[in-house]
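Lab notes, practical 5.
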Amino acid sequence: MDRETKKFWRQQRRQMLQRDRRAGGGWHHGSPITITLIGLMVLGWLVEAFLPNALMQIAILPGGRLMGILLSTILPSGFLGLLFSGLFVWIVGSAVESIAKPAVYLLVFFGGGIVGGLVTNFVGASTGAGFAAFGLAGAYVYAMSRINQRGAMQWALVLLLMNALLSGFQAGLLAGEAGAFVAGLSLAAVTEIGSR
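Output from the prediction step:
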């Protein structure tokens, strides 16, 4: 990230912390929604790890496939997935939360996750997890592009390469990640994220 981009994000973070202090917020680091979403991901991991039959039961219910796609936004698919997705949501989500209205932030998170799940389901792969983080990444790249298009493009390429390697080049996962990323980018553009 270049100097201008770093300066922008530091300024956004500072403004968010000042708003939290004025409002008397008790949340540390000024990212209450991000912390809550990571908590939901931990809860999702606990369900995956200790109640996998409950998830299978949901799949056979009427509308279960749709419910599975919705739940996949918070199911990290294993402990390693939880670590990577949680860290990614913490880093990128905190930055996006500092410039987005709460409703827009949640729309990007869940919208990206749902689109990623739908795309993965459409290509015939099992619905993965962590797609919501890619929606946030799309919003982050959109916000960066408003400051520095070259830096945003570099960040997007690094993200793409890193996730291609981590996914083992599985076409279904890559399609879901790309779908979530594009959904997050599109939602950020439509809602003009950062123009608070």
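Observations recorded by the TA: The chain is about 75% helix and 0% strand. Residues 144 and 152 are 5 Å apart (CA to CA).
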